[in-house]
Amino acid sequence: MASFLALCFLLLPGVLSVAPTCPDRCDCQHAQHLLCANRGLRAVPRAQLPKQADILVFSLAGNFIQNITASDFSRLDGLIRLDLQYNQIRKIHPKAFEKLSKLQELYLGNNLISVISPGTLQSLNKLKILYGNSNDIKEIKPDCFGNLGSIIKLRLDGNSIEKLPDAVFKSLPNLMYLHLESNKLRYIHRNAFINLTNLRFLNLSGNKQKSIRNILTFASLPSLTTLLVSENEIQHIGNHVFQNLKKLLKLSLSNNKISQVELGALKGLSNVRELLMDGNELVHIRSGVLDPLERVEEIDFSRNRIYSVEPSAFTQLQHLKILKLEKNQLTSLSGGIFALNGVLYNLYLNGNNWTCDCNILEFKQWMNTAHSQGRLLTVFVQCQHPDALKGRYLDYLNSTQLLYQGNNSQPCGSDSPVESLAGGLLESAFPRKELNIQADQGGVGQTKKPHAEKNKRKSVVPRSGSPTSAAGKTDTGRVVSSSRLGFPLVTDPCQFNRHFIVNVTVSQVSSNSATITWSVREHRSAPASAVSFRVLFDRFGQAVRFPRFVYVRDGGHSVTLHELSVDTTYMVCVEGLVGGAVCQVASRDHCTGVVTLGTVRSGADLQLVTMAMLGVNALLLLLVGGAWMGRRLRRRLQHRKSAVHVRHMYSTRRPFRAMAPAVASDFTSYQSSRPRMCPVDEGDLIEFPCDRFLDNNSTRRDEALQRFTD
Q1: Mean pLDDT of 539-565
Q2: What are the chain's domains?
Q3: Could you please report the per-residue DSSP string of 212-261?
């Protein structure tokens, strides 16, 4: 025994030497992860770890470590990820990472590093991610990244780097993401990015660049897809500086001091999808400047000083979807400026100095047409001039409220002043005193002339009141010739809908179609304000709405709606288009309801099938229940037969039964103490264990007979 104890004491130091110990204040629950983040450490912890080569992840983030010595990671040669972020590291020994030949991710961000000695990263030939952001690095040299050909992502943002020397990244041919934002870059050598043929993302935002002039600066970046140069001090962009960026998709020049873009500055950017130039000092957008952007989908010119845009500035941008021009100094836009931008659906124009006069009338008409066709979202053009319209939105103004510039009484497109407000009273070319407004059967006001004027028109309008066509034939619902000055002048679609469209009726309704007809009161229109119609119909009272339009050509007054849903209620409205403009107010004065007919359903057949199925199910239940009851009855009958057989064999009933009290008490005690093993339905039978029936021992049977005899 003594020798055994002595042997154990001899082996104990060896056992302790190989026992794994976790560094103090660290977490070693995972065999390959050593987690010491946010533990208040002031130095890299050391511990006796028997299999240090198996540790893959070592996290020391969020501590107070100041220096990295040469031996801190000397035994962790199997590390793949090392995290040293958010410490107070100032100095890294040149041989600190010498043994980490398998390291793939190194995070040194958010420390106090000012310089990385040459050769410090020399042995990290498998490194793919290197974070050196948010330090105090002032200068980087080509020898800092020697032998790092595997790096894919490099972050040097948030430092104090002032210049990028010649071929500083030449040893990083596989680099794809480069962050240099939030530095103090003033000078970039024309060959600084040479050999970065795989670079896709380059961020130079938040620096001190004043211009981009050299054609060779980005010439060696054929794979670049995102270039961010925002929040610099750029005033000038030279011609052809982006011509080699054939794969560029996003270019950001936001928040600089650019006042003018040269005609060839954007040449070569045929694949750009997004151009951001907001927050600059642009004052004018010239024609041809944006033409190289053949596939651009979004352009942001907001927060500049733009006061004019040439009409053909956007004509070549066939894929333009979003255009932002808010918070500039625009007063008007040409009516055809976006005529060729067929997919434009989001236009930001708020925050400008809009003057709502006749110069903006064509643009308003284009905007109304685009709205009516569902191609454009709501555009907020808030008038600032004249004072009478200040604060009003252009969408809700009619053409008669727009006056010639410098003339406060002459409306656009008219030789005489006509006031036509949506929802107001009509005025014809005659003075107000000659009008007499009275309600007709439909409750819509109509004009009547004095007796003399009425006599002059007897040859034109029959006594029945039906309009007469230019050929002299009566055609109910047709618009008469606009050359008759006696009819009211129509310039506003809202008033036209309310006062001129009458008798909207529904006919020929079926399960999937209906015919809508309407009549039009006598009116006249200017040559530039031709009247046409469209029919809006939508499911009434449905949670999901899907309004649709049917446009009526050639002045027709009826339309047949097809492909309607069965047994569905529709709201149908007839609207007028005056000069291509539509009314933005959803009035119900010219609407009606449609209820489609239902189809003949085989309700009786369905009911019969349902009843038959219920009968079959009931029959099946009866059959299953009968089988179950029959089986149960058979079992009970068999049970009763066996019980009767036992009763006849072992019944204690006798004609003359006289048992002494002592025997009865003994019998009772015996009956209560024996286990119930053979169930018998008769309550007055003596119950015996089943083995008693099968026992052929004559001695026991005789003893029982002697004890319980009558």
Answers
A1: 79
A2: 432-453+475-595 (2.60.40.10), 674-710 (no CATH)
A3: E--TTTTTT-TT--EEE--SS---EE-TTTTTT-TT--EEE--SS-----
